[in-house]
Amino acid sequence: MERSQPLLHRIGEAGARFGARPPRSKRVRFAIQLGIAILIFGFLVLTVVNQWAEIEAKGVHFHVLWLIPAFLVLPLFYVLSALGWDLILRFLGYRIGLGRAQVAWGQPLLARYVPGSVLYVLGRVLLSERAGVPRRITIASIVYEQAISATSAIVVAAYFFISHPDLQGQPLRWAVLLLVPVAITVLHPRVFNPLADRVLRAFGREPLPAVVSLRGVIALLAFYAFNWGVVAVGIYCVARSVSAIPLGDIPIVGSAQAVGYIAALVTLVAPAGLGVRDAAFAWAVKVAVPGQSFAIGSLIAIAVRGVLTVVEVLYVGAVTALGKRAGWSIPTGVLHASPQEQAADGESSGHAPEIL
Fold first, then answer.
1. For the segment 265-294, what is each residue's pLDDT rounded down to a tens digit?
2. Helices 98-106 and 294-325: crossing angle, nearest 10°?
3. What residue segments make up the domains of the chain, in order of their start?
4. Which of 6, 63, 171, 307 would suit a FRET pair with 37, their CA atoms being 20 to 30 Å apart?
5. pLDDT tens for residues 180-209?
6. Cβ atoms of residues 297 and 283 within 8 Å
């Protein structure tokens, strides 16, 4: 009698096969894709509607001119975020091209608004697989991305935690400085490699063929810290449209955004950090507003969430159009055609132009 595989091995096998064989019927695929799109859009619309009602109740009056530079700077944050992930893949030995990296990273972005963010991760895994990246490499790259993003956010927010008026007299606030060397130690190849391989073996998967070197980790941390500076400028412009904040407080506004990001990662209770991230940001940014008013900080948090949502929709639309124009069309960013259908499409339409 054949011995059954361990539970984790069976889960690993199921994960390796998931999405590789979508339904043969085009109507069924379309229904699934439409259902996922409606689900994602529904959570997104619900979020915007709830926040817009709160905005009207607070009586916010935007200074529109300050939103113009915000809509010019904030898309660059998303472009650089996708570039950062592409750099991680390069350190892991895979090059999918700058354009395809933007599509694979950006097209599933709105799926974060579905609780659990499972669709977001799954979308990136499947899109990367189409570009020739094995699933375990994509998962490893996402782990690296989250760890490096969090570490760089801690670096940006460390001064803020230490100097925040509400935390004065709390000796434990200095402990935030210890998180940076701890994170770098975990990401060191001599630690991360055996740790990742042990987890993969538990799920019956092959070990990682490569890891990011320590020099690569340090370079990525610098890159992501720079990107926090970019988003700080864009967020400041949004905050300035709500309240009179001195130009010299851009670092405070940027640190507040990093604090919100860390809070969302720690709690993991809301899609895309909705609510938790905004509340933490409001608490942090109030230091820069007149009278250190939490109410004004809340108004700024609502405005920032609204602008970021619009920018995300525009960015997703742009990368989707890029994928279609370059011949790498993905209907939802989650499901894709079978290899036989891809071959048939290639024969009928010719070779698709390569994305840079």
1. 776 555 555 667 777 888 788 788 766 777
2. 130
3. 23-339
4. 307
5. 888 888 888 888 888 878 877 776 767 777
6. yes
